[in-house]
Specification:
Low-confidence stretches: none
Number of strands: 8
Largest sheet: 8 strands, parallel, barrel
Mean pLDDT: 93
Length: 213
C-alpha cells in the first residue's frame, strides 16, 4: 500500500456513463498522468467479468503512475485484485472489510455530513473519511448537506485524511483545501471532457492547487 502521506491531492472517480464507448482507460490514464493520487472505480453494473477486466486494467495503470486504485462497494473484487475499497453507509461493515483486506489496505468511508459517522469509521479502521455533498452535484443531485464549517470541525477532531466530494470544481477546491480537505473527489469537473488531453490538463490544474499546502 502507498503511505498515508500519499493521501493528499486529486481523487478521481470514474463514471460509467461519462466514460462509456472506450473512454474509461484513456481518460483514467490521463487523470493519473495529471497527478491523481487515488482513482476510484465506480461501476454499478452486474457484469462481473467486465468489472474484473476493467478494474484489473485500472490497477495496472495506477501501479504505473504511482497511484492507488480504490474499488467502490465491492470488497471481494478489492481483495481479489489487492487494491483499496470505498464503502458507503449502506455498503456493509467497514470492520469486516478491514478484516478481509488486512491492515495495510486503503479503505475509505462515506460519512455524509456527520462527524459522528467519521469517528465511528475511524474506530472501525478507515484509512480516510469522505464528507459531502458540499456543492450542487450532477452525480448526487439534491441540496448540499456538508458545509465548510463542518469540514473545519472535522479537521480538528478526526486524525485521518479527509476527502471532500460533491460538486467539486477548480474554483471551489481552494476553499475546501483551506478548510481541511486532504483530497478532493472529482467526477464531472474532471471527466466530462472532449479528450484525454483535456482530462490531463484538468487533473494537473487540480493537483497544482495542493502544491502549496
Amino acid at each position: 500500500m502507498k503511505s498515508m502521506n500519499n493521501l493528499r491531492g486529486l481523487y478521481a472517480i470514474t463514471d460509467s456513463t461519462l466514460l462509456a464507448d472506450g473512454r474509461l482507460l484513456p481518460y483514467a490514464e490521463a487523470a493519473l498522468r495529471g497527478g491523481a493520487r487515488l482513482l476510484q472505480y465506480r461501476d454499478k453494473s452486474d457484469n462481473a467479468a467486465t468489472r474484473l477486466r476493467e478494474a484489473d486494467a485500472l490497477r495496472e495503470l495506477c501501479e504505473r503512475h504511482g497511484a492507488t486504485l480504490v474499488i467502490n462497494d465491492d470488497a471481494e473484487l478489492a481483495a481479489r485484485l489487492g487494491v483499496g475499497l470505498h464503502l458507503g453507509q449502506e455498503d456493509g461493515s467497514l470492520a469486516a472489510a478491514r478484516a478481509l483486506l488486512g491492515r495495510r489496505t486503503i479503505i475509505g468511508a462515506t460519512c455524509h455530513a456527520s462527524i459522528e459517522l467519521a469517528e465511528q469509521a475511524r474506530r472501525e479502521g478507515a484509512s480516510y473519511v469522505a464528507f459531502g455533498r458540499f456543492f450542487n452535484s450532477s452525480t448526487k443531485p439534491g441540496a448540499p448537506a456538508a458545509t465548510l464549517e463542518m469540514l473545519q470541525q472535522a479537521r480538528q477532531h478526526i486524525a485521518l485524511p479527509i476527502v471532500a466530494i460533491g460538486g467539486v470544481t477548480l474554483d471551489n477546491t481552494p476553499q475546501l483545501i483551506a478548510c481541511g480537505a486532504s483530497l478532493v473527489a472529482v467526477v464531472h469537473a474532471l471527466f466530462a471532457a472532449d479528450s484525454a488531453s483535456e482530462v490531463e490538463r484538468r487533473a494537473r490544474a487540480f493537483s497544482a492547487l495542493f502544491a502549496d499546502g
